[in-house]
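hi! just following up on the protien thing from before. the input was this:
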Amino acid sequence: MNGAITGLYAALTTFLLIVLGWRIAKLRMRHRVGLGDGGVPELQQAIRAHGNLVEYAPLALLLLLAAELGGAAPAPVLHSLGAAFVAARVAHAFGLSRSPGRSPGRFFGTLLTWLAMLTLAVLLLARAWSA
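and the predicted 3d structure came back as:
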């Protein structure tokens, strides 16, 4: 494998990152906040939705790339995990953008993110163990 699978999910994650960043920019302009969140709850949520993606995406994509290049799983499994990660991050961002408290999007987005990353980590450990 050559990284094309990871490239697909990195591209989709980039689109999500830009959408979330654009939302922050629009809210900053609307509320005239140049730095920080200005105490605006909607802006706080938007910043956290963006920040949360930035916190998880690099490691998740690195795990996916290592699994792909190392042959830790067949392409359909890698696609499933990449798609699960992107769907999870969309669900999480949507849930956090709608409510600062608990929400199904945040819960299932977090759970699915962790499951995808944990699965990739286990696949990589199994591959390393068998090498």
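The helical segments are 4-31, 41-69, 75-98, 104-130.
The chain has a mean pLDDT of 94.
cheers
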